[in-house]
Amino acid sequence: MSVKIYTTPSCVYCRMAKDFFAQHKIAYEELNVASDDKAREEMVRKSHQLGVPVIDVNGEIFVGFNKLAIAKALHL
Amino acid sequence: MVYDLVIVGGGPAGVAAGVYAARKKIRTVLITDSFGGQSLVSADVQNWIGVKSISGFDLAKALEDHLRAQEGVEILDSDRVSKIEKIGVGFRLATDQGKILEVKTVLLATGSSRKKLGVPGEKEFEGRGVVYCSTCDAPIFKNMTVAVVGGGNAGLEAVNDLLPYAKKIYLLQRSGALKGDPEMQDKIKANSKVEIILNADTKEVFGDEILKGLRYLDGTSGQKKELDLSGVFVEIGIVPNSALVKDLVSINQKGEIVTDPKTQATSEKGIWAAGDVTDGLYRQNNISAGDSVKAVLNIYDFLNKKK
Fold first, then answer.
1. The FAD/NAD(P)-binding domain covers which part of the protein (chain B) (predicted)?
2. How confident is the model over B197-221, as a mean pLDDT?
């Protein structure tokens, strides 16, 4: 299982998503697109999104934090 | 089973209602897709009474925790009410997740949502350059050219959020003058990154895979003009979330639910409303919570009279 989350420090939906991962003991990689230009380019390329969070669960891309959709993708 | 009360919404009004309903031992279910209401995205809330300073995120958590500490309030989170109809005992509700509930009374605490521009391209480019949360997404637009639509306080704050990041910020205001806080106006006007365009009526946003720009009617010259942009931040106000009950209760021209300020009762017996969805004059967390408490106490009286 590979989980990546693209975030900015000021984004509350990103915090909600990270809290959710922590609560369910899901390991994830966080990429801060405010400070990491490469991560920002990667996020835009993968998702065509200019908004966070973008969550990548095994290559499946989710825009925003939809708890039910993420839970389903993680088989929770 | 028939619930005595359904609370629709998880902002300050919804949570205050849940806490009071629990204390009154009203058989209650609360349905919401998230907690905290519109303040969730605020960096700092300094007027929630009893707390000097709290982030919107922490305020949302505190509200949720307070509600979850109550006994006897069932919570359906990650869900939304999709339909409310009248039946013999009161009302029947359906939710997005396919639940059907029967209730004697309804408290609508659905709040309000960000107003959309309603122009071609807006929906298509939402998240692809069209932004509704400047606090969240401003840092992504580092070294890019963006526009903020709306010259009220929310628009000025969006410009302020963008100042450390964007290369150039156009601020488009439909009327002939900015409306927000004069101090913030001065700060923004003094920054060379910012160009204010007054009498600008946004007509369209466009792009290919991502946003490329915006077209507006320049009311000063009467000409259609175009800006090349990577982002458009929409900050033109809010609309009450009253669509769910538009055929059930009386709603004013602004889309607000008409309520009796003494009790928060609506025009339909058995339905109350509190918070930003109502025609109350002021939009404040503390007022939403207080109005909602009024509603629950009145609902308690109503249920007792029925027995």
1. 3-282
2. 96
Quote the mean pLDDT of chain B. 96
- Residues A58-75 have a mean pLDDT of 93
Q: Which domain covers residue A35, as residue numbers?
A: 3-73
pLDDT at B19 exceeding the cut of 90: yes
Does B139 sit within 8 Å of A50, measured CB to CB?
A: no
Q: What's the angle, vertex CA B66, arms to CA B64 and CA B68, rounded to 5?
A: 65
Q: Which residue of B lies nearest to A16 if distances are taken between CA atoms?
A: B57
Please state, in angstroms and rounded to a whole number, the distance separating the CA atoms of residues B210 and B206: 8
Residue ranges of chain B whose CB lies within 8 Å of a chain A CB:
40-41, 43, 55-57, 60, 78, 97, 127-129, 131, 133, 135-142, 165, 209-211, 230-231
- A33 Cβ contact list (under 8 Å, min separation 6): A6, A7, A8, A39, A40, A43, A52, B139, B140
**B3-114+238-305: what fold?**
FAD/NAD(P)-binding domain (3.50.50)
| A48: nearest CB among B78, B142, B210 | B210
- For an interface test with B, the pick among A12, A33, A35, A61 (most B C-beta atoms closer than 10 Å) comes out as A12
A14/B131 CB distance under 8 A: no
**CA B121 – CA B215 distance, rounded (Å):** 11
- Domain count for chain A, please give it: 1
pLDDT tens, position by position, A11-59: 999 999 999 999 999 999 999 999 999 999 999 999 888 999 999 999 9
Residues A11, B137: C-beta atoms closer than 8 Å: yes
Reported ipTM:
0.84
pLDDT at residue B252 tops 80 = yes
pLDDT confidence band for A10 (50 / 70 / 90): confident
Query: What's the CATH number where A33 sits?
Result: 3.40.30.10
Summarize pLDDT for B56-103 with one digit per residue, the tens.
999 999 999 999 999 999 999 999 999 999 999 999 999 999 999 999
For A71, the 3-state DSSP assignment is helix
Query: Cβ contacts of residue B109 below 8 Å, gap of 6+?
Result: B7, B8, B9, B10, B11, B13, B14, B17, B273, B274, B275, B277, B288, B292
Task: Collect all residues of chain B within an 8 Å Cβ-Cβ radius of residue A15.
Answer: 57
What kind of architecture, by CATH, is found in domain B122-234? Answer: 3-Layer(bba) Sandwich (3.50)
Query: Percent of chain B at pLDDT above 90?
Result: 93
